[in-house]
Structure formats: structure tokens, C-alpha cells
């Protein structure tokens, strides 16, 4: 059954959606609901016909770590999307307009919305127009990784032209955006990555490359520190690398900042990973007079989405300075294989799902 809205666009009452019904790995936690309701809208929200969605580690991490009573399941999976406005709901936006955006965790819990559905209900503050030169499968993954990198470098790191930045994890989705933003700002950028990614990363014009698979980062950087120590270290891996922080005085400016995407344990039962995180917590809180590290450490706060930040990120795309990197594109009924890919932690850029089979 379908209804027709005032703008002549046909909107069905039910849709296909991947719904998280319980805590666990994607194969246990997800149900492909062929009859999920198309959401109704509140004031200030629009209905998006999703063309493509993309994955972030936060999706499978929360699925596996957080119990139902905290996440208020069931709700639709994932956060990043691009699509067209199906119902502008009196907001002044134009039906049919192409947009991209994302649904933060808090909003997902409140509204049960996610991006792995044919339709999603989102506030207008969470979307921006899609550049005409981006295909839907390219724009799908800009949201969370892009905003994370943007918030880290521009809002918190306050990176300036000529400053020296180290990106730990240049080939992560977050890292690829961070490098491009930093180069657009005019910073010098050194990255870590595995040797096989060096040519790819040098393609962005990075100034230095450290192969993390050869020797620990802190050993390599202590042996050959940069001529000008880093003003900002941005950890886009989130692997709670304790010695990389505790040795950072050797390669980071006294007033520099070690900024990390929030590291979480690989699982509550993974003892080494939990202990490592506890050790990191101890080190970042250890006072200087007790042998603490004389450098600032900060973890990125939970993202607050604002239109201003989305527009700031979009400007880099619109001006041709930021091109999303796509690792792979999966079809909508192949979502479990897409989870396998992102969970391998070997993806180079975004793992994308084509929700609308006609999306490029
Ligand atoms: N995506 C987001 O929006 C977002 C937001 C907030 C926080 N975070 C956090 O940020 C981290 C990265 O997320 P992501 O989506 O960008 O990850 P991702 O794209 O899935 O990361 C995969 C990449 O990480 C590289 N890698 C793995 N271990 C590495 C290491 N020790 N050093 C350097 N590179 C390494 C892999 O390269 P090789 O195969 O060559 O090793 C691969 O290219 C995660 O901890 C995530 O929870 C992400």
C-alpha cells in the first residue's frame, strides 16, 4: 500500500530495513524487516529516501557491547546516509533535493531511525546538500568519519597553516578525511599506515610516512623525530597505544595536543584490551610529579551535530579539496557481508551499501 504526498512523490507505508533487535554480532543481532513502518514526521524533520548508507565502527561496536535497555532496541542500524528529500514537511527544503547527513547515536535511540532503511526521518539540522560531482555511493560515508576528522582538526585541534600534524591511521576512513582537510588548511602532515598503503597515502601529498607494522611508532619517531615537533597528534585508529602517548614529548611540541578518537575495548571479556585501556586511563591521569607525561591528552567528545559544522565540512567537498574514499559497495540484501568487511578493520575508506538499487 502507498500514499502520495502533496509534492506528488509516492511514499509507501512500509519499507525494507535492517533492524537491530538485540545485543550481539551483526549475524545474531540484525533482522532484515521487509515490512518496517515508514516513519511519520515531527516538526522540523524531513523524510529522506535513502539512496546509499555507509558503515562506521561505532555501529558494530555498540551492537556488540551495549545492552538493549541502554540502546532502547529495536531500532534501524547505522548512521551515515545520502538520499533525496521525499517529504519536506513544510521546512522550506525542496522535495527531490539530494542531501547527505548522519543520524547520531542519541537521535537513533530517541527516534529508532537508522540509515539502513529505505526511508529515514531526520531533522533539517542533520543534512546538507550533496555536491553535484559526488555520486551517492561516494557521498554516503561522509557523515560521521568526515565530521569526526573535521571536529578534531578544525574545532578542537585548531590546526593552522604551516603547523605539523601527525595522523595515526592515515588509511582509516577518518584518517583519509583528516589528511585531506589538513592539506587544504596548509599543514604539514605525517601519517602512519602499513607499508602497502604508502603509495596511496603519498597520493594525498603527505609529507612523511611511518610504517606501523615495522616497529612501534614511538620507537621510530624517537629515533627520527620531525625537525619541527608535531603541534597536533590525531589518533584516528583508537587502539589505545600507551607508549605512543607516554613517549610523545620526544616528538610533540610542549603545548601540543594528543587527540584521539575514543578508544574502546575490543570486548568486555577481552582482558588484554580492557587492561590496556585501564593503563592508558592511568597514564593520562598520572600527575607530572608522579612521572606523568608532560603533554596534553584528550579524547574526542561525543559528536554534537550542527548545521554549521556540516556546512564547514561540505565546503571542503564543494571546493574540490576533499574526495571521499570508498573501499567497497554492497547491495542492500548483502549487508551482513558488508559488516564482515568493516569488521575486518582492513577497509581502505568507506564500506558502503547501495540501498536504492538505481543509485550510482
Ligand atoms: N568512522 C567514524 O565516524 C568514527 C567516529 C568516531 C570514532 N571513530 C573511531 O575511529 C577509529 C577509525 O574508524 P574508521 O571508520 O576510520 O576505521 P576503518 O576505516 O575501518 O579502519 C580500517 C583501516 O585502519 C588501518 N589500521 C588498522 N590498524 C591500524 C594501526 N594500528 N595503525 C594504523 N592504521 C591501522 C587499516 O590499514 P591496514 O589494513 O593497512 O593496516 C585500514 O585501512 C575507530 O576506532 C572508530 O571507532 C570513528
UniProtKB/TrEMBL annotation:
SUPFAM superfamilies: GroES-like, NAD(P)-binding Rossmann-fold domains. Gene3D superfamilies: Medium-chain alcohol dehydrogenases, catalytic domain, NAD(P)-binding Rossmann-like Domain. One of its GO terms (cellular component) is mitochondrion. SMART domains: PKS_ER (SM00829). Residues 25-353 form the Enoyl reductase (ER) domain. It holds the Pfam family ADH_N. Coiled coil: none annotated. GO terms for molecular function: oxidoreductase activity. It comes from the Eukaryota. PANTHER family: ALCOHOL DEHYDROGENASE RELATED, RETICULON-4-INTERACTING PROTEIN 1, MITOCHONDRIAL. This is NAD(P)-dependent alcohol dehydrogenase. It comes from Phanerochaete sordida. The lineage of its organism: Eukaryota, Fungi, Dikarya, Basidiomycota, Agaricomycotina.
Amino acid at each position: 500500500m502507498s500514499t502520495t504526498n502533496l509534492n506528488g512523490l509516492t511514499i509507501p507505508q512500509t519499507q525494507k530495513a535492517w533492524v537491530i533487535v538485540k545485543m550481539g554480532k551483526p549475524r545474531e543481532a540484525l533482522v532484515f524487516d521487509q515490512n518496517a513502518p515508514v516513519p511519520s514526521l515531527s516538526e522540523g524533520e524531513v523524510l529522506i529516501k535513502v539512496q546509499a548508507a555507509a558503515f562506521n565502527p561505532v555501529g558494530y561496536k555498540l551492537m556488540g557491547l551495549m545492552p538493549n535497555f541502554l540502546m532502547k532496541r529495536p531500532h534501524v542500524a547505522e548512521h551515515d546516509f545520502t538520499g533525496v528529500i521525499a517529504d519536506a514537511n513544510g521546512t522550506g527544503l525542496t522535495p527531490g533535493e539530494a542531501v547527505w547527513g548522519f543520524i547520531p547515536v542519541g537521535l537513533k535511540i530517541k527516534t529508532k531511525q537508522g540509515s539502513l532503511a529505505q526511508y529515514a526521518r531526520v531533522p533539517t539540522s542533520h543534512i546538507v546538500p550533496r555536491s553535484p560531482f559526488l555520486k551517492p555511493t561516494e557521498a554516503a560515508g561522509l557523515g560521521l568519519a568526515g565530521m569526526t576528522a573535521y571536529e578534531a582538526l578544525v574545532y578542537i585541534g585548531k590546526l593552522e597553516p604551516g603547523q605539523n600534524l601527525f595522523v595515526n591511521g592515515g588509511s582509516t576512513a577518518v584518517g583519509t578525511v583528516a589528511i585531506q582537510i589538513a592539506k587544504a588548511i596548509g599543514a604539514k602532515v605525517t601519517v602512519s599506515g602499513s607499508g602497502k598503503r604508502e603509495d596511496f597515502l603519498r597520493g594525498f601529498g603527505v609529507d612523511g610516512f611511518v610504517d606501523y607494522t615495522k616497529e612501534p611508532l614511538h620507537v621510530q619517531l624517537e629515533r627520527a623525530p620531525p625537525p619541527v615537533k608535531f603541534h597536533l597528534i590525531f589518533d584516528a585508529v583508537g587502539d589505545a597505544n600507551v607508549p605512543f602517548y607516554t613517549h610523545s614529548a620526544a616528538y610533540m611540541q610542549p603545548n601540543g595536543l594528543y587527540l584521539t578518537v575514543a578508544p574502546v575495548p575490543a570486548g568486555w571479556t577481552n582482558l588484554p584490551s580492557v587492561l590496556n585501556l585501564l593503563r592508558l586511563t592511568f597514564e593520562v591521569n598520572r600527575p607530572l610529579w608522579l612521572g606523568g607525561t608532560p603533554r596534553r591528552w584528550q579524547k574526542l567528545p561525543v559528536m554534537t551535530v550542527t548545521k554549521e559544522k556540516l556546512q564547514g565540512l561540505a565546503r571542503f567537498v564543494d571546493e574540490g579539496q576533499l574526495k571521499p574514499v570508498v573501499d567497497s559497495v554492497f547491495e542492500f540484501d548483502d549487508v551482513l557481508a558488508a559488516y564482515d568487511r568493516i569488521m575486518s578493520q582492513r577497509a581502505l575508506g568507506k564500506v558502503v551499501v547501495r540501498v536504492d538499487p538505481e543509485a550510482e
